[in-house]
Fold this sequence. Notes:
Blueprint: E1 4-9, H1 15-21, E2 28-34, H2 38-48, E3 52-54, H3 56-61, E4 67-70, H4 77-86, E5 90-93, H5 101-114, E6 118-120, H6 128-138, E7 145-153, H7 173-190, E8 193-201, E9 206-208, E10 218-220, E11 226-233, E12 238-244, E13 255-259, E14 262-266, E15 277-280, E16 288-289, H8 303-314, H9 322-341, E17 345-346
Parallel strand pairs: 1-2, 1-4, 2-3, 4-5, 5-6, 7-12
Antiparallel strand pairs: 7-13, 8-11, 8-17, 9-10, 11-12, 13-14, 14-15, 15-16
Helix pairs in contact: 4-5, 5-9, 7-9
Amino acid sequence: METTRIGIIGCGTISGAYLSIAKEWHILEVDAVADLVPDRARERAEEFEVRRVMTVDALLADDDLDIVVNLTIPNAHYEVALAALEAGKAVYNEKPLTIDRDEGAALVAKASSSGCLLGGAPDTFLGGGIQTCRKLIDDGWIGEPVAASAFMMGHGHESWHPDPAFYYKLGGGPMFDMGPYYLTALVNLLGPVTRVTGMARTTFPQRTITSEPKYGEIIDVEVPTHVAGVMEFASGAVGTITTSFDVWGGRLPFIEIYGTEGSLAVPNPNTFGGPVLIKGGSRGGDWQEVPLSHPNQENSRSIGVADMAYAQRSGRAHRANGELTYHVLDLMHAFHDAQQATGFVEITSTCQRPAALPVGLLPGHLDP
């Protein structure tokens, strides 16, 4: 198979996962890397045997590259993605699609007018765990979905991340950091959302870094750090979501889907595997673990890029697409907006449920 050549912009922490796992997809070839800090790009290129180290401008202008993978910090996502689209390249952003809602919409419009593909993380919903849940729902194992709940409860990143300040600035906070995993999984399982309401607060106005190398530095918190929301799905299902950097722990599920014929426990949407548990009304008994029906159960970050590459070849829709990633961005903003609106916020964006992956795929392949 002729490979699709990709260039990665942004060689920070997350780039290691993309660079190592992209090699497992037969359709992908990482051909170039770039970073505003040239030494960081050179280190990644040496570590993962990438052929070329380039400047950002040179990478965007290179006609040999088919897809730009944008792993820059969130407030640079729009600028880099727009430049890639203007250069006639498909672009895949790390999450979130952008920080600003209008900029996200502008990227979707630009991709449509230019005929270039746009998409973004997370792609964990393409892993074996959530794809198994999708098949169970589609095959009617829990009947008609009527409700869902989702929880991401923790105390933030300042105790372990080497540079955690941006998690507490515009574009950060628990909803923008972790919400994309949960909301993308929910939209994949239940479809788009039509309206939301929510409340939010900032519990600690300052955070003290206890990780190295910035131990002892103080972070001024500029975003809500506990966000609770309610969603009405177009399908009629009702969902709740809570994301927090303000609690010391919880004993709550990651995601559960409740149907007319049973309940489904969805695995951590920040992972690709299981376990998947089901409890059926007609089947009775306690929760039962379900064998996973799909591969890609280990860390498969870059599966969304591979799916985009297949879509480029065949003309089919890719799953982690711009409409989905923008809808999730719109929802995250809407939960924050609802705090000010003190009521429901109507969601004007929408998207199609991504197509489920077929069963029986060979390792390293996404199309039969």
